[in-house]
Write a structure and sequence with these properties.
The complex is a heterotetramer of chains A (604), B (274), C (132) and D (312). Chain C folds into 2 domains: 75 residues, no CATH class; 31 residues, no CATH class. Chain C is 52% helix and 2% strand. Chain C has 3 helices and 1 strand. Chain C starts with 10 loop residues before the first helix and ends in a 35-residue tail after the last strand. Helices cover 71% and strands 0% of the residues of chain D. The radius of gyration of chain D is 29 Å and the shape is elongated. Classes of the chains: A mainly alpha (604), B alpha+beta (274), C mainly alpha (132), D mainly alpha (312). At the A-D interface, helix 8 and helix 9 of A face helix 1 and helix 9 of D. Strand 8 of chain B pairs antiparallel with strand 1 of chain C. The structure holds heme-A (2 copies), dinuclear copper ion (CUA) and copper (II) ion. Copper (II) ion binds next to helix 10 of chain A.
């Protein structure tokens, strides 16, 4: 390996077997090792992806073949109704689909899985600042999963993932949702607790546990992204938790935060109270808009790292990238109202929110252009990682640009709650984030398990997913144009939508293709664990500290405490001639120029 | 393989643009021309944004495809990647240009939004004499008109006229309706008119529009309101003022024909809780 | 560095100041001022002063490094910003509000109130009475 | 946290404060947002509500109790600081003493809070249960009547299975009564129920019966000696306009604050279980739980004026 780093030479014979033996349970179940916790998160979320995807396929089935018996699932779940689902069930399907995808897949896979695995490795720490807290943050996922599934058993949340009161606050409004909605709220609370534990831990770790020399502006963008995400989580999530408690007490204890008086719901007695449903929408989106960036920023960070490595080029505009992420986070706090343009909010607020929403496209633009700039003049091979990263950029472009139509209030009057929105957020959530995650799995898998994932399977998986994804979600824009409303169990009762059945069938078939492709991913994941090609520390020729650790890293991560001499993106540096990367730990005897960069200044 | 993957990524913008061009032929565009004045403006805004976004989209994708094409060729040509940490002037350009465009888009929109929503911009006669009150309810639209010749009061009046799922409005003049809900949140959505407004429990929200042509327009609900959300189907009928007046008179006749005392029957028809 | 041996502030004086502030707020209440907004402003100002004392001295913020600004600035901005942003929508009403409890008095919007259904109260004493 | 490293760590980057303190401050940041959501919602809901019950006689808000509680928390905050100071000066006995005092004050706070809650609960000032119009108030009283008569029926006719059967069997029971007292009792119950039914019909028909009339009628019933035995828990409810929102916010905010107090007590209980000498290991711990405790105090500092003083 690196001849430039003398420390590494004798590191090999240290190995990492010199730690006292842990039992299986200590090591793999109740582990406090960030790597194991990260992998636990990863596997859990991949399984949840299947669950959420299966629910989505249920949604798709109903839209393409309304009221027809679903092939396998139908008999399984709704055998009693001849395999046919009820409208309540449809509501439950998409509510739980979104819940599972957002709270149990995307958020935990980014912050939980990759955040955990990568943060200490990339900043050169031996573990998180609070390993036990870290473990708890994983185990608090399980009550959440439990409650979500319990909710499922009771008939599922019936108010969409946004859970707008009064529908979600008064039991009579959705008769089937009695305990289900309550469990749903409990689940959200536990997810919140879990993320909160994670986020304070990440922030502490990143602030206080960086290796010598790892100044803030030498941190990889992944770490910046994780840091900013943690901040977003720490400041936005408590608001949702608080609002969740308010809704919970509205449902169970008779408080009236969100229920105005005098409503007669489903022949109930008129409600008493004096609450305001809009308050929930504000509090909910105060969290959930920053949350969409929580669901995106880490993927942006990881994609930046992967793209730089795959292009063998420094990231284009490192500081603008950092700055744009910070700006996205900052602006992300003041745009939440764009989800409420038609809600009857104060029109002055609507204007303010429109302008801030438009402005948030700006840092995103900087990022997109910088990614393109990173590839520009680079040297790429189309391996699975590159493919997924390029797909990330390409799909984020579509998803982001459709956001522009919606950010324009008058246009959003038409598009709100149509499939235009559905297309938009699947493009950013699946198209951007999940492709980023697929790339990241492929990229860091060798570090997790010491073996490469199969390239061939990876490429097939990518191709099918990409094809199926665009086939499924691009036409949704056009459905939105035609005014196809979302959350409709049977849109075809409206004559102006009748001609859209074939499009929906096409979408469903594409979704099935995309769904089946995910089985390949899982297969690849397991297969490569046993049969993947074994590799050494640095299979990709990366610069980051994680490539300095053994693959897989042992307990305590590094056999030698890394010392950082430069930023993480010195690919193809002219300072070295025999290879095209220059690791952060590589010590170059100072010719003269670099010395000023190396003072181990105390950086906050 | 290099050509293949580049084509895959190139196919994205090409197919996207093509499908948008041909979408109209398959009924995948707006469901017809906008039938209100504001709707026309909304469509115009949409097309303006569409042009800006399409240009950005094609431009960015062209850039992306070009760089991956060039970068993937480097392997064969040999040689190292370009060691470059960024170009400052480019950063500045691609921050400022989009900033201006975006600022322009958002300021340009404000006018339509203010016309639609800001109280002082409501057309005066329409605002003074709302034609009807639309009350959403799981899962139907209840409509209350004032008796012919009278004004709509916020409080239900004994001689008010009631229908369900069938809103008649005079054509070619601004009309205002008062939107309410008796239970959960709903949303009054008429795709052809490009009108959408949520009905919030506890509030009475005015909406105005100016239908340009006679006709029947689908009325749907655009905010999840329970299991029957999809079936809240109604219609908005725009007809000449005379027809509208005649309609109200007919409605009044029908309603007083019930046999019950004239004064009381509307209240029976209205009570939302039998 | 922040943990170096700084002088301990005189905690007891801080404590006394806090007690005095509390007494002042209660006193302000007992004054039964006519203008309630003035009262609100006074007591909230006192509360802020107390909060400042606690944070600066009891929580040692006065002696901490610069990080305190980085941590507290966004928090404080968000904590003030959130209620302010809710205000135009929830605190005041742009549209007419249904207030079935109270058909007599005006609501935030100028328009008349509106009884949502037969159960809305249109009679009886509108003055709240104390129990027993 | 730290594992044996082949090399002694060189300078780590970061702030010169311990991880635990940093983490506590970050956590407090999230807590600020948590209470911001509650307090912010309270402020805007209250401003948005067309009215607010302000009369302390109605709401059972007691400024002096609240003020006392503020004082209690301030003293406890002071004691924590002293305890921390003592522990840094290695004066463990003193630290322990002041920690114990803090703990005791926290208990006192909860006791006073309990009194306040008790006062509200005993008047049924609970979210969702407050009548806001006289119609609702009358309905509520009628509901109490129903419970009272149902109980009386159950006592007098334990053999029948449920109210329906009992009511149906009432004439027979009167006819079969064994003693004249029992007969009289059953008869007066029957009369009471008839009167209630009449009252109920009148209220439901909305004939313009005012709450005062209603109260008169109920008082008249209560005055009748023969009914006295059945009227146990019935008393006329009075509407508190906007009382439900008031009660909701009041209980939410004070409730979550009380939960935080409980957590703080738990935090203090842990070192208190240890012998004084071991407190040395708890120096950072006491500082951090002290920070938390000051935050709990801080929240109360804002809740006190908002809930207790600004009443109009
Ligand atoms: C990862 C998640 C994610 C991300 C990143 C975004 C990003 C954006 N979103 Fe999206 N959004 C969601 C997830 C996300 N969103 C979800 C889940 C919903 C629906 C929730 C629900 O109702 O269930 C939603 C809904 C939603 C709405 C509400 C629609 C409605 O319900 O009526 C709006 C409205 O403004 C909006 C806008 C935007 C904008 C402007 C961006 C911007 O950040 C995008 C910026 C990016 C670009 C613009 C592309 C790159 C830029 C350039 C190439 C520069 C040049 C461009 C120009 C000059 C135009 N989103
Ligand atoms: C990250 C988030 C995420 C992801 C990845 C997805 C993925 C998918 N979503 Fe998602 N979706 C949301 C978030 C997401 N969605 C949200 C937030 C909503 C809004 C809900 C609301 O309105 O409240 C929504 C709503 C939504 C709707 C609109 C419903 C409606 O409004 O009526 C539709 C309709 O087509 C849809 C479809 C799909 C499809 C086909 C996929 C596909 O990508 C899924 C592909 C399939 C798989 C990945 C797994 C396949 C697995 C198998 C084949 C094996 C089966 C295994 C077992 C049974 C163990 N989604
Ligand atoms: Cu009504 Cu949806
Ligand atoms: Cu958003």
């Amino acid at each position: 390996m690196s001849t430039l780093n003398p420390a590494l030479e004798h590191a090999h014979d240290h190995g990492h077997g010199d730690h006292h033996e842990l039992t299986f349970v200590q090591k793999y179940i109740f582990s406090t090792d960030h790597k194991i916790i990260g992998i636990q998160f990863l596997i859990t979320t991949l399984l949840m992806l299947l669950v959420g995807g299966a629910l989505a396929l249920g949604v798709r089935w109903q839209l393409a073949f309304p009221w027809q018996s679903m092939p396998i699932l139908g008999q399984f779940f709704y055998g009693a109704q001849g395999g046919q689902i009820a409208p309540e069930t449809y509501t439950m399907l998409f509510t739980m689909h979104a819940t599972v995808m957002i709270f149990l897949v995307i958020i935990p896979v980014l912050a939980g899985a990759f955040g955990n695995f990568l943060i200490p490795l990339m900043i050169g720490a031996d573990d998180m600042a609070f390993p036990t807290l870290n473990m708890l943050s994983y185990w608090f996922m399980w009550p959440a999963i439990f409650f979500f599934f319990l909710s499922f058993v009771f008939g599922g949340g019936q108010a969409g993932w946004t859970s707008y009161p009064v529908l979600s606050a008064v039991v009579e409004a959705a008769p089937g949702s009695g305990h289900a909605q309550t469990c749903w709220l409990m689940g959200v609370t536990f997810v919140g607790v879990s993320s909160m534990m994670g986020s304070v831990n990440y922030m502490t770790t990143i602030i206080n546990m960086r290796a010598p020399g790892m100044t803030l502006f030498r941190m990889p963008l992944t770490i910046w992204a994780m840091f900013i995400t943690a901040i977003l989580q720490a400041f936005a999530l408590p608001v949702l938790t608080a609002a969740g408690f308010m809704l919970l007490t509205d449902r169970t204890l008779g408080t009236t935060f969100f229920v105005p008086s005098g409503l007669v719901i489903n022949n109930s007695d008129p409600t008493v109270g004096g609450g305001q449903p809009l308050l929930w929408q504000h509090l909910f989106w105060f969290y959930s808009h920053p949350a969409v960036y929580i669901m995106l920023l880490p993927a942006m960070g990881m994609t930046s790292d992967m793209l730089a490595c795959m292009s063998r080029k420094p990231i284009f505009g490192y500081k603008p990238m950092v700055l744009s992420m910070a700006t996205i986070a900052g602006l992300g706090f003041i745009v939440w109202g764009h989800h409420m343009f038609t809600s009857g909010m104060n029109p002055a607020l609507g204007m303010t929110f429109m302008i801030s929403t438009m402005m948030i496209a700006l840092p995103s633009a900087v990022k997109v252009f910088n990614w393109i700039g990173t590839i520009w003049g680079g040297r790429i091979t189309f391996n699975t990682v590159t493919l997924n990263c390029v797909a990330f950029v390409s799909m984020f472009l579509i998803g982001g640009l459709s956001g522009i139509y919606m950010a324009a209030v008058p246009v959003d009057i038409y598009f709100h709650d149509t499939y235009m929105i559905v297309a938009h957020f699947h493009y950013v959530l699946f198209g951007a984030t999940l492709f980023g995650v697929f790339g990241a799995i492929q990229f860091w898998y060798p570090k997790m398990f010491g073996r490469l994932m199969s390239e061939k399977l990876g490429k097939i998986h990518f191709f099918l997913t990409f094809l199926g994804f665009n086939g499924a979600f691009f036409p949704m824009h056009l459905l939105g144009m035609a005014g196809f409303p979302r959350r409709y169990a049977d849109p075809y009762v409206h004559p102006y939508l009748e001609h859209l059945v074939p499009v929906n069938q096409f979408i469903t078939i594409s979704a099935i293709v995309m769904g089946s492709a995910q089985i390949l991913l899982l297969f690849n994941f397991c297969y490569s664990y046993f049969c993947g090609e074994k590799i050494g520390r640095n299979p990709w020729g990366g610069n980051g500290l994680e490539w300095f650790a053994p693959s897989p890293p042992g307990h305590g991560n590094f056999d030698v405490l890394p010392v950082v001499y430069r930023g993480p993106y010195e690919y193809s540096s002219p300072l070295v001639t025999d290879r095209d990367y220059l690791m952060q730990t590589d010590y170059l005897p100072p010719p003269d120029s670099e010395s000023k960069d190396e003072t181990d200044e105390q950086k906050t | 393989m290099r050509v293949f993957w580049c084509l895959v990524f190139l196919a994205v913008p090409i197919l996207a643009v093509l499908s948008c061009i041909y979408a109209e032929d398959y009924g995948l565009w707006f469901p017809g021309e906008a039938e209100t004045l504001l709707g026309k403006q909304i469509d115009d805004l949409f097309y303006m944004i569409n042009i800006i976004v399409t240009v950005t989209f094609i431009g960015s994708n062209a850039g992306l495809c070009y760089v991956i094409w060039r970068a993937s060729g480097k392997q064969e040509e040999g040689g190292k990647a370009w060691f470059c940490h960024g170009v400052h002037s480019l950063e500045v350009i691609w921050s400022i240009v989009p900033a201006c465009i975006l600022m322009f888009i958002s300021l340009y929109q404000l006018d339509v939004w203010m016309q639609f929503r800001v109280r002082t911009n409501y057309p005066t006669e329409a605002a003074a004499k709302p034609v009807a009150e639309v009350t959403a309810r799981q899962f139907e639209w209840r409509i209350r008109y004032p008796a012919p010749g009278k004004d709509l009061q916020l409080q239900p009046q004994p001689d008010d006229l009631y229908t369900v799922n069938d809103l008649h409005v005079p054509v070619n003049q601004p009309v205002m309706i008062q939107l309410r809900t008796i239970d959960v949140q709903h949303s009054f959505f008429v795709p052809d008119l490009r009108v959408k407004q949520d009905a919030i429990p506890g509030q009475v929200i005015p909406i105005w529009f100016n239908v340009l042509h006679n006709g029947e327009y689908d009325l749907t609900c655009a905010e999840l309101c329970g299991w029957g959300h999809y079936k809240m189907r109604g219609r908005v009928v725009a007809e000449p003022v005379e027809d509208f007046q005649a309609y109200l008179v007919k409605l009044q006749a029908e309603q007083s024909y019930d046999g019950v005392a004239n004064e009381d029957s509307p209240e029976l028809a209205q009570s939302g809780e039998e | 560095m922040a943990d170096g041996h700084h002088h301990h502030p005189n905690y007891f004086m801080v404590f006394i100041a806090l007690c005095v502030c509390t007494a002042l707020s209660v006193g302000a209440d007992l004054l039964s001022l006519d203008n309630k907004l003035v009262l609100a402003a006074i007591v909230m100002a006192i509360a802020s002063a107390k909060a400042l004392f606690v944070m600066m001295y009891f929580m040692h913020l006065k002696f901490e490094g610069k990080w305190k600004f980085i941590l507290l600035a966004p928090t404080v901005i968000l904590a003030i910003g959130l209620p302010l942003a809710l205000l135009p929508d929830v605190g005041v009403h742009y549209y007419t509000v249904d207030v079935p409890q109270d058909p007599a008095t005006g609501s935030a919007a100028e328009t008349d109130e509106h009884v949502a259904d037969g159960h809305g109260d249109s009679h009886g004493s509108s003055q709240p009475k104390s129990h027993e | 946290m730290s594992h044996a490293q082949p090399q002694a760590p060189a300078v780590r980057m970061g702030l010169a404060i311990p991880n635990s303190k940093l983490c506590m401050w970050l956590f407090l940041g999230t807590e600020i947002m948590f209470f911001t959501a509650f307090i912010g919602s309270y402020i805007v809901l209250r401003m948005g509500s067309p009215g607010w019950p302000g009369d302390p006689a109605v709401t059972h808000i007691n400024v002096l109790l609240g003020g006392t509680n503020t004082f209690v928390l301030i003293v406890s905050s002071y004691f924590v600081v002293v305890a921390h100071e003592a522990v840094t000066e290695k004066n463990y006995e003193r630290a322990r003493l002041f920690l114990t005092a803090t703990f005791a004050l926290a208990c006192l706070f909860l006791v006073i809070k309990g009194f306040e809650y008790g006062g509200k609960i005993s008047h049924d000032i609970l979210p969702g249960r407050i009548p806001e119009t006289s119609q609702q108030a009358m309905e509520k009283t009628l509901g109490q009547f129903d419970v009272a008569t149902s109980n009386a029926l159950g006592d007098l006719m334990p053999d029948e299975e449920h109210d329906g059967l009992r009511i149906a069997g009432l004439p027979t029971a009167i006819a079969d009564a064994e003693s004249p007292e029992e007969k009289a009792e059953l008869e007066s119950l029957q009369a009471l129920m008839a009167e209630i039914l009449a009252l109920k019909t009148e209220v439901r028909a909305e004939t313009g019966l005012t709450l005062d009339d209603f109260e008169e009628r109920v008082d008249a019933m209560a005055a009748k000696e023969s009914y006295a035995g059945f009227m146990g828990h019935v008393h006329v409810s009075h509407p508190i306009k906007y009382g439900n929102l008031f009660a909701s916010t009041y209980f939410l905010m004070t409730g979550f604050h009380a939960i935080h107090v409980l957590v703080g007590m738990l935090l203090f209980a842990i070192p208190l279980c240890k012998p004084a000498a071991q407190l040395a290991e708890y120096t950072d711990y006491i500082e951090n739980s002290g920070l938390y405790w000051h935050f709990v105090d801080l929240v109360w500092i804002f809740l006190f004026p908002l809930l207790y003083i600004v009443q109009f």
